[in-house]
């Protein structure tokens, strides 16, 4: 816990919402703030292009992509809006999503659908799942001759389910369908290689499981698809007087949108170094084991069930408390915090009530036991 800035009296089991930043990483974040303010003109005009290029290169290396295919964005919601607004989708076209997609990104496509007239098809992936093949087959039932884009999560936010995105992307490519993957929860939680995944578009946060500062996200577009993506915001990066990267329209269009604070982006390499040094495979496995421990122990309580087999989740475990007929899930979340200082999301999804437990390097066995005891006491009354 001492490596992080989290309040020591809070049992923080909600890394999945906004992440948490190690002190070492946050110190570097403040360093970049100071560098900017010491000489803003020099920093923004003369130093920033090279600094961003280096940060982007390190991020691309970490994710298994080329640096010309990755640009920084504030968050996946921004990237989802870019795709939804820019792709030539029209009346008669369909965008296929699962029934477990993140609300803000789903809203981006719903808004664009109202403007352009294309249709969103939401395909159910029944829970619990048993195999990757079963997931692909269930999802593929939503594909029609009108499907132009598949938009699906790598690890779902609401249900903490790891989806076989590489298999879905491969099948989509064979069918001539574009793919965009919402990887908000993937980098830092699982090892990944964007080239091997094979998506046309991929977006993720760096501030969640990579533990970079808030407001650092990435947007990957394969080089042969970049001509499809116009900038959502037009600034100095566009046109004949490009400020940055005149040799690459995709980077130039998306990297300089006007004056902004680049400190979160520039801190991403430090977060990557922190992961390589401190969040070793041993520590990551321990975090996964604690999430599974939370699920296993909770499922021993009457009226609580596990949702996924161990193979389908990593550092976010999910339990189903629907049988307890919780009338107000927000009130339950507040109760767990006020009574036990446990920060954990209680989620209403379809007709089910779920609790998603996140574990990271700062999580201890005692945290998990306190959480389980809190559930026992709460549901015994």
TrEMBL record:
Protein name from the UniProt record: Aminotransferase
Gene Ontology MF: a single term: transaminase activity
Domain Aminotransferase class V as annotated: residue spans: 26-344
Keywords: Aminotransferase, Pyridoxal phosphate, Transferase
Domain of life: Bacteria
A Pfam family reported for this protein in Swiss-Prot or TrEMBL: Aminotran_5
